[in-house]
Amino acid sequence: MTAARRLKDNYPTSMISIIIPAFNEERRIRSSLEKLSSFLKTREEKYETIVVDDASTDNTKKVAEDFKKKIPNLRIIRLDKSPYAGKGLAVNTGALAARGDIVIFTDADFSTPINQIDKLLNKLKEGYDIAIGSRALDRSLVKTRQNPLRELMGRIFNILVRALVIRGIVDTQCGFKAFKMPPSKSLFEQEKIFDFGFDVEILYLARKNNLKIAEVPVIWFNNPVSKVHPIIDSYRMFADLIKIRLYYSNKEGSLGDKFFYLIYHYRTFWRFSVVGTSNTVVDYGLFYILTRMAHLDALTANPISVEIAIIWSFIWNNLWTFSERKVDKPLFNRFFIFNFVSIGALMLSQIGLLLLNKYVGVYDLLAKALTIPIVLLFNYFLNSRWTFRDTAKGRALWYIYTGLILALLLFYLTLTY
Questions:
Q1: How far, in Å, CA of 370 to CA of 348, rounded?
Q2: For residue range 380-417, what is the model confidence (pLDDT) as tens digits?
Q3: N or C of the chain: less Cβ packing under 10 Å?
Q4: What is the spatial distance between Cα 245 and Cα 241, in angstroms, rounded to a whole number?
Q5: CA-to-CA distance for 185 and 182, rounded, in angstroms?
């Protein structure tokens, strides 16, 4: 009895889906599909193959289509250019389109030979939900090594993976993984990261859902044609790990979880604070120039520096801070309300500056600095709930906010006159 027959008897399945993500693989995918065609002729299980063309600009799709007569149940899915473009999106698309009870994805160059597939299937047969190929468990199986820099990058990345995200897996990045789809489908449905960190996110979600993961040593040949940039992509890899911790942080978890929860779930405030910091630099710098170089008095220079900083702040808050919100106000309306809110903030700043500098005698630069935290909180509160209010939150209490700003203006005029 063949190994394939024994596997089929012990682990009955209607179909196994093989996903091959491909971006500009015209030169390499022909050889891989030839090998796959020969391999599938030796198998008794039913297979489908899905090549996901990740918006290639070469003839990847055409080369794959040439194999439709050689490979049974071959499908080619073409992705358009997307801001989420990356190998992770191609794998995700293929996995969710698959009809098989088991989904296996493999690199287009077959760095791990397709005949290693039984190592993964046997682990699923033993009761694991996910089986992943590993180059680190038995390095004698790495037949062609990466260059020293890429190997060092890989090891550092895995140290960071284990420190920040998921422990107990020594190679999360090998492009050869198998999933039982009934329990694993939800992992792909929840996926948010489609760049280098997609493997780590999937495995993190699997652990979170108590799925059993087996790591299996596999043969691996490094392909010298690398699309990984040692500096830019190292940054992107690290950023993906931070995103995973942020997206799935838990306020009831560890101290680290609570920290990431605080950062992520209050991200609009932290973004607003970052913009506010840059806004303060603009404001403070102009205030210094106008008072020290142009010799304007503080109460005249302050409105000028504040208004320039307001324009700066609106641009960045509109493009970044509140970019995730659905705001139905036209841009001009937002800018008008933002300026009106800033009048209230200016009144707070002027009142504080007047009281501290003129009446208490605090040095003007220090007096202005002391008003900054109050102005920041005032600005965030009103802009978050009025200027950039999400349509899902309903209508803003504009009349209350308008009354507050007018009251501050009246109070300031009372103090000055």
A1: 11
A2: 999 999 999 999 888 889 999 999 999 999 999 988 87
A3: C
A4: 7
A5: 6
